[in-house]
Write a structure and sequence with these properties.
The complex is a heterodimer of chains A (142) and B (544). Chain A is α/β, with parallel strands linked by helices. Helices cover 39% and strands 24% of the residues of chain A.
Chain lengths: 142, 544
């Protein structure tokens, strides 16, 4: 059903990604899908990389790490922006078309009151694309 | 790119080597990780990521200054105003000397091989089109000032020159109409031409170079790396950043407050809307809310679009004034004024032994302190939107093009007002500064429409200053990050509006604005150091 999964990755907040990455591995193996890990970064230096090129290298290394885990074909693509926080939704929607993904799996946070003013990225992206979106919550302590 | 057939063994350190930014460049080797001194949290569902010391001390100083100014207005006002007056009267030579260095360096760089260096590395691509880029440079740089002083300053210099007042530039041209026109336009263009833009360009170029090519965070302290080395990550760097936050926040808040009083006077003059605190507070709230929407939408969809809207409106107003005003006088005046500017530039910019000390202290040094204290804000914003340009392209766009636009604007508005005065209309000359534009437009056809466009332009210029300023403060207080959580930029945009309202209602707008102008002195020294850093930084860059 799915041939190409896109996975938005924030290398600065890897701790929030783990549950989503496990789902990605399972889904990719189940559907024999390839995976593109997508990074959105600032054009100016940030906590992960001092240049967009360095960010690309780190994302490619990350993709290879994941390849070693799930064995599915991987690629990595970075989009730079002057204002990545404000442009994130637009860039993700463009990336879905650009990489031709038929499924997006992304981590998302628990609902919070501020979502009324600043909706979660998963919500907004899902409302603006025909591609299926799979949102994965962080694991909760029960 | 499908890597299935050639999987590499992932190695933890394989991405740690620092590659070129975008093609060849020369990164500074430092162990500092951007954000390493930051405090992050998601308390109450609100994310934040802030440089602990810069944010805490900036906030504390802002709070102390607001409280002191409101609680002790009679003590604080003379203190701040006295400091500003002393600086502009006694140390005017420092400002004039520093600004001359900025012009010499930035104009000189255009013609040297260093102009070939590309910001962001030899293969970097510009983030914005020329139209969007230039609109943002201009809107952040001085759009609002041109609205208020486009008529007021040429008229004032003309009058003082013609009357031979002590405030006349270069001693004036008493009784000589043509001489007074020439001198007044030269002096006005001097204040709005190469020198202010060179001041902005020094900060912007230094920041862009040390951020995009050297890999340091986009914050003021980075300029000092060639001088202070790794010490910029400690207190010397914190102090520079805190001073930049202080100047930017209070500069914006006091401008917003004073601008609201001027816009309210304009609305009263045009439409009879009551000129009182309610109108002013509503204006500040309105401007703050639109600015809030703009910072949420970001640089591309917020600031850029509003700046382009403003440039479009300003172009329409300028074209209208040229078309229905004294078209021929403006057309010939453009070249005459440009010539007068360059002829008088050596005398006007001479820092020592001036006989027109009232003009130098009251006008030039005041303006220079103003441009310099605004330079961290405007410079940082220009740097943020200028990646991918060569140094030469950058300097032509930040220096020469705005200068020519200023000459055209001042010629169109100033020449029209002076011609009206010489034809016997004294309404503009006798009006308050903020109303002179509307008095001048009132003598032209369709004045209710053009005055309305003028009011809208003033408002939108305030919005574009407020939103770009909030982005700059957010970046400095988060240790140079431009990807800090959104609630932070909302906080700064709101704080700016609240401080403007508090100072408007409680008094102290003028006092704190004087305090901001006083930061012009330390920043003049910081910028001189920045000149050294630019040359040193550019010398080590590949020239593509």
């Amino acid at each position: 059903m799915f041939q190409h999964i896109m996975v938005p990755v924030d290398l600065a907040h890897m701790e929030t990604l783990e549950p989503a990455l496990q789902v990605v591995a399972d889904m990719a193996r189940y559907y024999d899908a390839s995976i593109t890990y997508v990074g959105i970064t600032s054009n100016s230096p940030n906590s992960v990389a001092r240049t967009p090129d360095e960010y690309q290298q780190k994302l490619e290394a990350f993709a290879q790490q994941r390849h070693a885990v799930h064995g599915r074909p991987v690629s990595a693509k970075v989009y730079g922006s002057t204002d990545p926080i404000a442009n994130l939704n637009d860039l993700l929607v463009n990336a879905i078309n650009d990489v031709n993904a038929d499924l997006v799996i992304m981590a998302t946070h628990l609902p919070k009151s501020l979502d009324v003013f600043i909706p979660a990225h998963g919500d907004t992206v899902a409302a603006r694309t025909h591609t299926s979106i799979f949102l994965v919550r962080a694991q909760q302590n029960k | 790119m499908d890597n299935e057939d050639k999987p590499k063994a992932p190695q933890e350190d394989e991405s740690q080597g620092i590659p070129a930014p975008s093609g060849a460049a020369n990164l500074i080797d430092t162990d500092y990780v951007i954000g390493q001194d930051n405090i992050t949290s998601s308390k109450f569902g609100i994310d934040f990521d802030l440089h602990g010391k810069v944010f805490m001390f900036s906030s504390l100083i802002i709070l102390v200054f607001v409280v002191l100014t409101l609680a002790l207005p009679e003590q604080m006002d003379p203190l701040f105003s006295g400091a500003k007056n002393w600086l502009t009267e006694h140390l005017s030579w420092v400002f004039l000397f520093a600004a001359n260095i900025f012009v010499l360096l930035t104009v000189g760089l255009i013609f040297t091989p260093l102009g070939k260096v590309r910001l962001g590395g030899v293969d970097a691509k510009p983030d914005f089109s020329y139209a969007g880029w230039f609109a943002m440079l201009f809107a952040a740089g001085m759009g609002i000032g041109l609205m208020f002083y486009g008529v007021a300053e040429p008229l004032t210099h003309f009058s003082t020159s013609f009357e031979g007042s002590s405030f006349a530039p270069l001693g004036g041209a008493e009784g000589d109409t043509a001489g007074a026109i020439s001198l007044s336009m030269a002096a006005t263009i001097y204040h709005w031409g190469l020198h202010p833009w060179a001041t902005y360009a020094v900060v912007a170029l230094a920041l862009a170079l040390f951020s995009y090519n050297k890999g340091l965070p986009l914050t003021m302290r980075s300029i000092f790396y060639p001088i202070l080395g790794e010490r910029i990550w400690g207190w010397p760097g914190h102090l520079i950043d805190i001073l930049a936050v202080f100047a930017t926040l209070f500069g914006l808040a006091t401008s917003l407050g004073l601008g609201a009083t001027q816009a309210s006077a304009g609305l009263n003059y045009l439409f009879g809307i009551p000129n009182n605190n309610v109108t002013m507070v509503v204006l500040i709230l309105g401007i703050t809310l639109v600015a809030l929407g703009s910072v949420m939408a970001g640089v591309d969809k917020g600031v850029q679009r509003l700046s382009q809207l403003n440039m479009g409106l300003a172009f329409l107003l300028l074209t209208f004034v040229i078309a229905v005003g004294p078209t021929l006088a403006i057309a010939t005046g453009f070249f005459d004024n440009l010539l007068a500017y360059f002829q008088n530039l050596p005398a006007l910019s001479n820092p020592f032994g001036r006989e027109d000390s009232d003009f130098v202290g009251g006008w030039t040094a005041f303006y220079w302190a103003w441009w310099i204290s605004w330079s961290p804000f405007v410079g940082m914003f220009i740097a943020r939107v200028s990646r991918g340009r060569t140094v030469r392209e950058f300097l032509i766009a930040v220096l020469l093009v705005p200068m020519l636009v200023s000459v055209l604007w001042m010629t169109a508005f100033g020449s029209t007002a002076i011609e009206q005065l010489n034809s016997g209309f004294e309404g503009a000359k006798n009006a308050a500064d903020e109303l002179q534009l509307f008095e001048m437009l009132g003598q032209l056809p369709l004045s209710s429409i053009t005055s309305f466009v003028g009011i809208v332009l003033v408002m939108v210029f305030f919005i574009t200053s407020s939103d770009s300023g909030s982005l700059v403060i957010d970046s400095i207080t988060s240790g140079g990050k431009v990807d800090a959580p959104k609630p932070q930029r909302i906080f700064w945009a709101l704080l700016e509006g609240f401080i403007a309202i508090a100072l408007l209602l409680g008094g102290g707008l003028g006092a704190l604005q004087a305090a901001v102008l006083s930061t012009g002195l330390p920043f003049a020294l910081i910028l001189l150091a920045g000149c050294y850093s630019i040359v040193k930084g550019l010398m080590s860059e590949p020239r593509g």
